Amino acid sequence: MTILTEAEAKALLTKVLSYSKADECEVNLLSEERGNLRYARNEVSTSGSVTNRNLAVQSAFGKRVGVATIDEFDDASLEKVVRRSEELARLAPENPEYVGVLGPQQYLKANGFFDSTAGISSADRAAAAGKSLTLTRDANLVGAGFLEDSYGMRAMMNSKGLFAYYPSTNVNFSLTVRTPDGKGSGYVTRGYSDFTKLDTASATRIAMQKAQASADARALEPGKYTVILEPTAGAVLIENIYADLDARSADEGRSYFSKAGGKSRLGDKIVDDRVTIYSDPTNSDLPASPWSGDGRPQEKTMWIEKGVVKNLAYSRYWAQKTGKKATPYPGNLIMLGGNASLEDMIRTTPRGILVTKLWYIRPVDPQTMLYTGLTRDGTFYIENGRIKFPIKNFRFNESPIIMLNNLDALGKPERTVSTESFSNHLIPPMKIREFTFTSLSDAV
User: Fold this and answer.
1) Geometric angle at alpha carbon 422, from 359 and 280, rounded to 5°
2) In this structure, which of 77, 154, 237, 349 has its CB flanked by the most CB atoms within 10 Å?
3) Per-residue confidence at 2, pLDDT binned at 50, 70, 90?
4) In terms of Cα–Cα distance, which of 415, 35, 32, 418 is closest to 192?
5) pLDDT for 38-67, tens place per residue?
């Protein structure tokens, strides 16, 4: 399937809008192709690709709104989906929070599309996976990996003259390597917009080393420890701060960012001075769409700057109600880091734990942002600045807010893939004091 160019998308959306008889109409177009290759027990198990082109039409009569979708693109089908959305709108009750569509907007230039990724073939996937498989087979280790790539575009147009278009590409690679007896396990993940940056062999060697080093793990008593969280481990906790940045939830007393009296923590210092978290669609290492789902421009936005809450996300309705700027929800997650290397962090740790991965993250208390989960795929005890031996996995209970108040050191940010949301983030390795482990887990 050929991905629509900007001119082709604009022509198609203009045609769809020409059928509209509603007071307002908005049309969203998605066109994409995804490919994947999966392997387990050192053998490829599945390989495939998916193509998708989808059109969603939203029609409004006053505050009555209806949405219909279709994946057929002949003229009769396009008119049919518009009529269907109008029919649904007339049947719908009024939505008191509907604020209408936006007029034309100006967007930043974000480059998230790379020909190297758009041109990936099944042979390219096989070659990338083959480099990994050769290493695990030769070392008598067992590899299970997943490689997925995508390229496509999103576009929207409405009856007030707004038009937005964004093409993008992405490739994610994840790998678990285990020893033949199943006692040792290592994990690695990589995510890029540009396929040429993916080195599956280098990534595989990291997972292999962790698998071999983590066999014969010893039990350590649960408790509070200094931990070094690799970016993959830290990402699954930090991203929950982003998930809580909704201003309405804060104002209505339903989140960590709430304060008594219907107030929020905007302007409050909540974490260590070294913590700055922001979003920026133009970031070259983690590009993102320059427009949000309702057409609002995405700008570089500080969410937490030097430990202080600088912004919360406001829907257009809630912004009108509260008299605030309608700030869209962040399109990517970037956390500033420091200059410490992982080796530096280990060397300066008298007693602590190195964590490769946290998984199965679940909320415990939304008001304090407390989460629970487990370590996995390579957890190691550090003593006097050296990794001494592998340890059995722990269950933890920890809040990313408390964690970022117990910050010892930050490394350089790396693009990583969350094992929970599968989103790509820029996160540094972190050294944290008094991280709470509550019990042991026998899983490797």
Assistant:
1) 120
2) 237
3) confident
4) 415
5) 999 999 999 999 999 999 999 999 999 999
Sheet holding 301-305, edge to edge: 308-309, 301-305, 277-279, 334-335, 424-427, 414-417
How many C-beta atoms lie closer than 10 Å to residue 25's C-beta?
24
Q: Read out DSSP for 259-300? A: ETTTEE-TT-B-S-TT--EEE-TT-SSS---SB-TTSPBP--
Q: Where are the alpha helices (DSSP H) in 32-74?
A: none
Q: Percent of the chain at pLDDT above 70?
A: 100
* Nearest-angstrom CA–CA distance, 434 and 226: 5
- Which of these, 10, 192, 47, lies nearest to 113 by C-alpha position? 192
Reference 193, options 224, 173, 218, 169; nearest CA is 169
For residue 302, CA distances in Å to 59, 242, 257 come to 34, 12, 16
223-229 vs 351-365, strand pairing mode: parallel
Q: How many residues are listed for the chain in this entry? A: 444
What is the SS3 assignment for 418?
coil
Alpha helices in 278-428 (DSSP H): 316-322, 342-347, 400-405
Q: How far apart are the first and last CA of the chain?
A: 42
Per-residue pLDDT tens digits for 75-96: 999 999 999 999 999 999 999 9
Q: Is a pLDDT exceeding 80 seen at residue 1?
A: no
Residue type, 444: V
Q: Which one, of 418, 71, 103, 385, lies nearest residue 241 by Cα?
A: 418
Question: For the chain, what percent of residues have pLDDT higher than 90?
Answer: 98
pLDDT 10s digits, 316-334: 999 999 999 999 999 999 9
- Other beta carbons less than 10 A from residue 400's beta carbon: 23
